[in-house]
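Q: Hi! First time doing this. I have a protein sequence and I read that you can turn it into a structure. Is that right? Here it is:
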Amino acid sequence: MFEKSIQALRLLNRLGYGQPGSGLSLNLVCNPVGAFLPPKQAAIEAQFRKELQARHGIEFNHLYTITNMPISRFLEFLLESGNYEQYMERLAGAFNPAAAAGVMCRYTISVGWDGTLYDCDFNQMLDLPVGHGAPAHIRDFDPVQLNGRQITTRNHCYGCTAGAGSSCGGSVTS
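A: Yes, that's right. Below is the predicted 3D structure, encoded as structure tokens:
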């Protein structure tokens, strides 16, 4: 699998992706293996840039770190391995108000295949639509109401607010 990923990255580089001045971005995502918070985004980006260039001749624009959310397969892993409580304590203990201020659910809406609105992709995966009186379907879209909505939260939200935070664009704070 790793070698196929390297081959794909090399192909993308040959096509211009990740090359300086090409205008074609190549961004990578890194999330830790296991019940850990991701390392500092800037530090790991520098390390990945150095290693991928030296070992494989690969260029990329950005590396985003993302926290593992305690949902779906990762939740199953946590429960089966007996790490759920410890991981949730780690996330809650690393709560960062600055990260909470920048989480994607504060400025993004996810739209399901059927038009249902969700505060984020994770809530969509968990079938937790926008609630609390805000429009819950695209046909009722109202930017004023949605902008002032109360966001539907659950335990997985600690993942986006822990440490440097986590979003589709990687860390929320530096």
